[in-house]
Please model this.
Amino acid sequence: MIVRRALRDDWWKVLAYLAILVINVVVVLRAYPTFEANLSQLMNLMPDFLSFVATALLDAGEQRLQVFMGINHFFKGANMIGPAAAIILALGTVVREVEIGTIGLLLSRPISRTRILVSFAAVHLLELLLPLTLVTVSLPFLADCLIDREVALLPFLWANLHASAFIGMVYALSLLTAVLLHEQIKVAAVIGGVCIISFMLYFIDAARPFTLYRLSSIDVYVDLVKGGALPLAELALCLGIGGACLAGAILIFRRKDY
Amino acid sequence: MTEPVIQTSDLTKRYGATVALDGVSLHLERGEILGFVGPNGAGKSTFMKLLLGVARPSAGAARVLGLDMIRDSEAIRRRVGYLPGDLGMYRNLRASAFLDFCLSFYRDAPRGRGLELARLFELPLEPKIKSYSTGMRQKLGLVQALAVGAELLILDEPTKGLDPTSQALFAELLAEEQARGRSVLLSSHVLEEVERMCHRIEFLDRGCIIPPEVVAAVRADFRRVLSVTFCAGREPDLAAIPGVRDVRRERDRFLLRIDGEIGPALAALARLDVDSLEFNRPDLQEIYHAVYLSRRRP
Model:
């Protein structure tokens, strides 16, 4: 029942999220031939704080398209659009029920609070990760159709797994905040603020190790799409923080008065 | 002897320094309709939320339908129909979808009963809830609470915003439910309705149940008021009647408040040209005001 209602509420949000991910991939793929032809000039134009991106692209050699797509689809696409979607979906849970006054009605039904929250989380994680994975799986096909080039799917799937863990972590953090606060605008401001500030700080060398995005950084994706192994420390942190936030959200929700 | 449907002992709820409910002990028997009255913020809604696990008690215990309020909360909710006082709804849903959503949590809730109730209330289920008036939303809230077919109904201000016809229908439905052996706990500010529908009334004030002896004293006090009319042209000296503490005139009748034994006052009145005499029968409204006024006097 909760699952069905969440799906009915969210379908247009998920469609918009998927469309943005697809548009991002199509636009960067179409731009790639021009980018590659003018690579050296473009690299000279890169600002200092993006020099490590330039280095990664220059050093990629034969795997340049793979790296280019890894940075654009995962670091730029999944890291920015994914958390935004995660926050929007988390706003549709407890905090929304509180704001529109339906929480009393919902909690008076014969269903445990844990099941309510887990149902929301399961649907939302599916809604967040399925579109991302669909776009990832379609990358070789799109590269072939749009620019007649080949990319390998398997490294993208590993990168997709890592990006999914990161987005899941942001969702769990948003869910925890949605349980703690009573207004959607406050939840959006807190988690949106954390993500935006964290993303800005990511480009400052000294601050990078202390940002959220260090767990889902360009280095991680460049390495993964070039065939490297999963970064277990970062992956474990994403899963650990996400799991802890989800467990915290359930514990708080179970004890909270409405 | 069967266990009460609701049995609470010293139920207390604090929100920080604010005491919303302070040691409330009461019971509701099977097939009984219990009315809960009290001013805003008295703790009526909080009490109902505690019974359903929407809020958790700070102290005290309760058994609902023979089950522990905390440990068996989900099982209790399966057997209770609830109408919240501050009823919010998913405004973008059609009323039929909302009803389906509410009933989908109950294994045995017959959808047909919901449709039947909606028809009785003349409530169209096709429109989206955002196009509903306040009264229509209240009707939908009542429909979902009654359609569950629960053993216990907990209704927080059930007739708020209802038109007189729907209020009358609601009273009929409640009587039907009671005839089926179901129990009802309801709160309302419409005292006339509470008096008409409920078997028993509990007064709540600042989180506490007003002791029955206080209410009984107020009722007794009202019974010591005599309403007297005299034959035309006669206005005796009423202050001279033994025990009369206070005389108030309302058009052609006099209200005499008697202290002490009432017999000498009646004997004195019998000697006068009395046209009619009756003991005052206070309605709940008068008792309510008297009870709360007495508690607010320094």
Q: What stands out?
A: The mean pLDDT of chain A is 94. Residues 2-37 of chain A form the longest helix (36 residues).
